[in-house]
Amino acid sequence: MSNIEVQYRDKNAALIFSILIILLIVVFFLDIFFGSVTLKASDVLQSLTHQSHSDVETIVMKFRLPKALTALFVGIALSLSGLQMQTIFRNPMAGPYVLGVSSGASFGVAIVILGFSAGITTGNLNSLGNWALVFSAWIGAGAVMVLIMLISSRVHDIFVILVIGLMLSGGISALVSIMQYFSNETMLKSYVIWTMGSLGNLTGSQLNVLIISVTAGMILSLASVKMLNALLLGENYAMSIGLNIKFSRSLIFACTCILAGSVTAFCGPIGFIGIAVPHIARNVFRTSDHFILVPGSMLTGGILMIASDLLSQLPGTGATLPVNSITSLIGIPVVIWVILRSAKKSGIA
Amino acid sequence: MGYSAIGEEIRYCMMEGKSNEILSLEALKIGYISGRRKRELLPPVSANAKKGELVAILGRNGIGKSTLLRTIMGLQPALGGRIIIDGRDSARYSRLELARKAGYISTEIVRASNMKVRDLVAIGRFPHTGWTGGNDPEGEAAIASAMERTGMTSFRNRYVSELSDGERQRAMIARALAQETDILIMDEPTAFLDISGRFEMIHLMSRFAREGRTIIFSTHDFNIALNQADKIWLILDTALVEGSPEDLVLSGAFNSLFDPGIVSFNHNDGTFSLRPEKRGKLFVRGEGLIRDWTIKALARAGYTVSDNYSVPYLITPVKEAGKWVIVLDDASYEFDSIYSLAGWLVKTITLLPEILPVIFNK
Question: In degrees rounded to 5, what are phi and psi of residue B193?
């Protein structure tokens, strides 16, 4: 009886996973086909397999493919960091953007761009500069994470923490404005361009750094599924079933900072994917088991981010919208739904 | 000669007891550390529990019952002394090893959306699984059996957030059973439950204790502790007193829990009652259940039962439909129920303190 049911449950999850994988492949290729110029499928496939040397190949290999890959890894990274934050804080409203972790990362980046490295801009950073940028974003994200953690250990009201997160973001923006006021024009310009948030401005070496960092974060996330499941019960129960709370929390913290920080370093703050995707994954799979939720959020996040990129190019027109506004329009309704639901029955994460 | 043989026997019994011990506290200091300051809640406590015992912890609110349980579980540090679990100092257990020895259930409610009962119970296998948390057939069997024995099998696909208090508590116990530990630590397991839920819970706990688990639970329910526990750890401001409920009743340990002017402890049946205003003694004539319950109402009204016949007197009915009759020297009063009788006694007899009515069966 129980075996039959276990098989059925796994089959159900396997079916959803297959659908998501197919969906991911579809949006990924659509993202390559559509843009300011709509390409023919046969040309794209030829250029992907290096069988032509046309303008199409230049467009695909230099612009469309890197952008689609960026969207994929950004979506994965933000969703995973959101999932981890929601579980570790036991707060359904947690996410890198709403709790100010992205702002913390921006602050780290601002210090690098506006403060120390005069003369280099995001456009011409060499790969060592890229790592410096990413590293400072990690540190900035980590500082905010530690602050939020300290506050959550004293205040348990999730809405209070949410408001404090917003205040932190506001405070950090104020600090950055002050830094902007005292910086010179070139630095300011490169910083302002960065804050607009974009998936398409990454250099090849920046994409490499992003892919390496996010892959590391993915591996750490997959390695921590059991710890995340234990943390769902809360700190006391988690310890009572044998979880080493300090180790697991540090590991998951580091992982979240790497994921959210890397994205923010290269693409600017991108909102609401991190908070919304884990809720979508939980309700698609109807489970709280991170063994399913971690890969589930990765797939859902990748799909949503690529779809947002696709929508931001307004297929059929030449215009391009900021991707941040699309992710907000997708994410905010989900967040409102979660707020209304948790206000009703106070179910967390 | 005979004397020393008895001595031998006693020593033998004590050794038997020692080998059976699963948990013992040795001059354990509990409390909180804030900064460099330590705040001890109690004088050092010593106590022990054997395999298969149901141990109830009693004590007033805020005396440190939860802190003691949390300290045993290693959720907060001991400020001194030792906790010996299965013959080994608990400080020498890793967190994982400890989780294979002792499970924990507190009043903290697990709030996780989309978590099914089966998922919750499966998390109990944490100390026995690899990094994915996946279960081997043995683990699956432990999960199934834990749900079976707590009556949660049919709830396996229900969401934890949708369970009633009693169902959720049973699911938490199933989780702790799936953990397969010798010791189960429960902080106020009956706190949220209604009366039938409490008895159901205590029934489950006694059953698991009979199977060989040691269950240590804190409670405010004296009735349950006195009737069901094999042993009581009574926490007083000055010490921890341990023993069977009966030992503690006979030694008068419970008296120190309450203000003796307000609450009296009945040494015959182990119940507590508010000490009523004393009005006098009554002769109660009658028999059976109706007489017993009438006496209970009289006691509440301030009368104890007199052994000697006297007038005025009162009669209890033999059958349910009968009447209670108070017979005075010159008059008698009839009552349809104990309620109206007690009301009349409280109101009238205070005016006539010398009148001692007697109750008869008519």
Answer: -95, 150
